[in-house]
Amino acid sequence: MNILGTSLRVCVGDLEPAIAVYERLTGAEAVRSRRGGVAVAAVGCFFLMCGPEAELSVLRKIKATLAVPDVDEAVADLRAVGAEIIAGPVATPIGRNVVARHPDGSVFEYVDRVPVRGARGFDFGGEHRAR
Description:
- The longest helix has 12 residues, at 15-26.
- This protein is an alpha+beta fold.
- Strands 2-3-4-1-5-8-7-6 form an 8-stranded mixed beta sheet, with helices on both faces.
- It has helices at residues 15-26, 53-59, 71-80, and strands at 5-11, 31-35, 38-43, 46-50, 62-67, 84-92, 95-101, 107-111.
- The chain has 3 helices and 8 strands, in the order βαβββαβαβββ.
- Strand 6 (84-92) and strand 7 form a beta hairpin.
C-alpha cells in the first residue's frame, strides 16, 4: 500500500479559535463539515474536532488518518494482512474513507482524498464500531 500522507486528529474545546491558529500555522483554509454532533475542520494536515465528549471519545481511538491513492486497494491490502474493516468505505467531502483495526489493535482511518460530489459529513467509524 502506498501511503501518501498523514493527517493528525486534534480534539479542541472551541473550534473557531483553533481554526484561526491552524490556518495561520499551515497557510491552508479550513474545510468544514459536521458528523453527528461533532464539528470538523480539515486544515492542512490537521483534522480539528469539537463536540460532545461521548462522540469525541470514539474519535480519539482512531490514531491517525492516512491518505492513500485508492481506498478499495487499501481495503484489499488491509484484509490481506488480517486487519478488520470496522467502517466504510464511505464517501466524505474530502474523499472515500474506511476505518480499519490492524492485527495489533491499532485503529486507523484510510482516505483516498478524491472529493465525492454530494457527500455529506465525515464518517469516522461510528460510535459502536471503533471500540
